[in-house]
Amino acid sequence: MKYLDEYRDADLTRKLLADIQKTISRPWTLMEVCGGQTHSIIRSGLDQMLPPEIELVHGPGCPVCVTPLEQVDKAIALASRSDVIFTSYGDMLRVPGSTRDLFAVKAAGGDVRIVYSPLDALKIARDNPGRTVVFFAIGFETTAPANAMAVLQAKALGLSNFAALVSHVTVPAAITALMDSPDVQVDGFLAAGHVCTVMGFWEYEPLAEKYKIPIVVTGFEPVDLLHGILKCVRQLEAGTHTVGNAYERSVSRAGNKPAQAVIRKVFELTDRAWRGIGVLPMSGYRLRPEFAAFDAELRFPEVQAIETKESPLCISGLVLQGRKKPGDCPAFGRECTPQAPLGATMVSSEGACAAYYRYGRYSFPPPGESLPKGVEGGGRGDVR
Amino acid sequence: MTDKPNLLGWTCPRPLQNYPTIVMGHGAGGRMMADLIEHLFAPAFSNDLLAQMGDSTVIEQSSISNQKSKNRLAFTTDSFVVSPLFFPGGNIGELAVYGSVNDLAMRGAKPLYLSAGFILEEGLPMETLGNIVTAMAKACEKAGVNIATGDTKVVQKGHGDGIYINTSGLGVIPAKVDIGPANAKPGDVVLVSGTMGDHGIAIMSVREGLTFETQILSDTAPLYGLVEAMIETSRGGGRRPPAIHCLRDATRGGLAAVLNELSIASKVGIEFDERKVPIRPEVNAACEMLGLDPLYIANEGKLVAILPEAVAEKVLSVMHAHEYGRDAAIIGRVVSQHPSIVTAKTAIGGMRVVDVPAGELLPRIC
Question: What is the DSSP string of A82-126?
Fold first, then answer.
């Protein structure tokens, strides 16, 4: 496929690997911030092809994984209401809440619908004026413009039966938290290409300077990732620490200004809890007061009091901070599998645990008896 | 067809054509149901066995199996609940016929007879039912099978999705044919009969309103003709046993699920090269957009075959000559290492494990 196959080219991959090998003189630990990058690295087998001096640790950039448990429980409470149609991106449906997931709510009669865009949720709201349509507005700066646009549209159209359950988070706050943590040992960051497509990379410059660490904006295909790694390793070997751009075909320093303007118009910064990490100051977006009418938590205030309980076995918080790898978890592949996930990192295909389980199980063999016994039913049945 | 007559339905018999939609009376065992069978199902599926119209259909043993030749019977069942009922390249009626026909073919069985059970939702337009039944009749003709028995039920509005169809199939396995999921041997090669993921993406593109430069059509097709040609070629002359070890139609769960099932059943490892798996560019594009992996997407007219390397090229060329095997390709091989695990060589030359999907395929957020 054009614009994709070029970036999955085996010859180019070999050449970049050789360049990295030539450049590197000692061990470096790099963190890819985004779960989409983790997925691509494991899916393509890149982690096994890199020189042994490079250790990739997987960052907190999986929006599904870091959505805090209380927000998932709130989603479940809202979705269980007969007067609510709950709409969400598909991969949030299997994220375990304290006692069940959104699929279980759907099976119990809740009206839970997968949408591909928040604008689809608006359409559902238009078509169902008698019920409140709640959209689960999660994600990093990547999904924020579209989610903000949906709120603007709802206001413009006077769709009073649309509301958003907002759980947005931002990348710079996560990098700050990781660098301030004494347990996190990272020499360089691969920043998320799509986040920077929206936000640009100017806001990473003070971070690179403050923490004396190279940050390279990196794409998602294997060649993009190797290009980012090479640029990062070159800086590390030369002892520099600037913000580099290895995703120039999509990212500029300033980013997409109209998209940023939409975000600023609808959202404001707030403290936000990250699943498995805790509350990070000014690390997320919430609706501005002038859009309070579209805030699902204000419309259904009873969900604000929801308390949460995490599985004591799950170490997803440490995985999200790059302090542990999925294979380090005693529950990995045993109590915790994609079929029965204990934590969100095992759910989303961008979650590090799910990526390891799906593609890397061979190199991290759990006991043979934990092999899946066959394909589960699920909803795929309706293709026949 | 053995429900007690419903006297409410019986009191006001009217000809079928006066009902533009299915009503509860069409499943009540009375005149209306008889009309439905007489005017709609019987003409479409007309054959001698169905004409018996008994509580069960009597089949002469000689017509299915010759005792001397040690033929065996294959028997299968499958239910079809697809939404939408009509989609690019097919409809629920064709799927219901080809689904059971293909399940028989995957054991090397020549499909002979089907049963057809219809669960109709009150309010289903009669025209829709007519179109589905007509499509099923055509599909039966194409697949060389007869519908030997059937049943109709009607459920109240809101208790079904228009129509559900169950088919069971009866087929006969020629002597010495032994094709089964546990037969893969290290050294065997793995073939697919064509492009992967067409059906699932065709369905998803309608459901999600995705449009592409070229429309993606479902690949729904009867595969026994292709299987028969493969079996004959793999015999290596004369009446020797055919060399094909495993066949599987790559339906729900796609290629990834099938390879995992075969590797587990045969206690062998399977390795394949991602770049050799035929995938249409538009299917690939849709998968990239939706965050799905084409290896996990359903097919309805594609099979996976495992057979000894010695016959692989010959079988492949026979497949290429068949209308349902034009894009067939050798994608990998069976190994003795890592039993029950499927690995893929990635496009960039890396290696990954290809696991079974956990449950419903979920589009990724970004």
Answer: TTEEEEE-GGGTTS--SS--HHHHHHTT-EEEE-SSHHHHHHHHH
The reported pLDDT for the residue numbered B196 is: 97
3-state DSSP assignment of residue B131: helix
**Which tokens in the block code for residue B36?**
């439905």
pLDDT at B74 over 70: yes
Distance (Å, rounded) from C-alpha A125 to C-alpha A138? 19
Beta strand residue intervals within chain A, DSSP E = 28-34, 54-61, 84-88, 111-114, 132-139, 162-169, 188-192, 215-218, 243-245, 267-274, 278-287
Fold of A65-170+256-305: Rossmann fold (3.40.50)
Grouping H, G, I as helix, E, B as strand and the rest as coil, residue B169 is strand
Q: In whole numbers, what is the pLDDT of chain A averaged over residues?
A: 89
Sheet holding B246-249, edge to edge: B246-249, B303-307, B189-192, B329-335, B269-273, B342-345, B351-353
Write the burial class of residue A376 (CB in 10 Å: 0-12 exposed, 13-18 middle, 19+ buried). Answer: middle
Least confidently predicted of A225-234, A265-274, A349-358: A349-358
Chain A residues inside the 8 Å CB shell of B360:
93-94, 103, 378-380
CATH 3.90.650.10 domain span(s) along chain B? 189-353
In percent, how much of chain A has pLDDT > 90?
66
Domain range B7-57+65-173, CATH architecture: 2-Layer Sandwich (3.30)
Instruction: Tell me which chain A residue has its CA closest to the CA of residue B337.
Output: A362
Location of each CATH 3.40.50.11750 domain in chain A? 5-62+172-245
Residues of chain A with CATH 3.40.50.11740: 65-170+256-305
Given a contact cutoff of 8 angstroms between Cβ atoms, the answer to whether B307 and B247 are in contact is no
The phi, psi pair for A305, rounded to 5°, reads: -90, 5
Classify domain B189-353 by CATH number. 3.90.650.10
Contacts of B78 in chain A (CB under 8 A): 384
pLDDT in tens, B194-244: 999 999 999 988 887 777 767 899 999 999 999 999 999 998 766 788 999
How does DSSP assign A328-340, residue by residue? G-TTBTTTB-SSS
ipTM of predicted assembly, 2 dp: 0.81
Q: Look up residue A306 and give its amino acid.
A: I
Q: Which residue has the higher pLDDT, A331 or A263?
A: A263
User: What's the pLDDT score for residue A193?
Assistant: 96
**Beta pairing class for B351-353 and B342-345:** antiparallel
Q: How many angstroms separate the first and last alpha carbons of chain A?
A: 28
Average pLDDT, integer, range B144-167: 96
A142:B366 CB<8 A: yes
CA-wise closest residue to A360 among A47, A143, A109, A137: A47
Torsions phi, psi of A148, nearest 5?
A: -65, -40
Any CB–CB contact under 8 A between A100 and chain B?
no
Buried/exposed B98-120: b ≥16 CB within 10 Å, e otherwise: bbbbbbbbbbbbbbbbbbbbbbb
DSSP β-ladder status, A54-61 and B189-192: unpaired
- Residue A382 is predicted with a pLDDT of 59
Length of chain B: 366
Chain B environment of A383 (Cβ under 8 Å): 82, 199-200, 203, 252, 298
Q: What is the fold, at CATH topology level, of the domain defined by A5-62+172-245?
A: Rossmann fold (3.40.50)
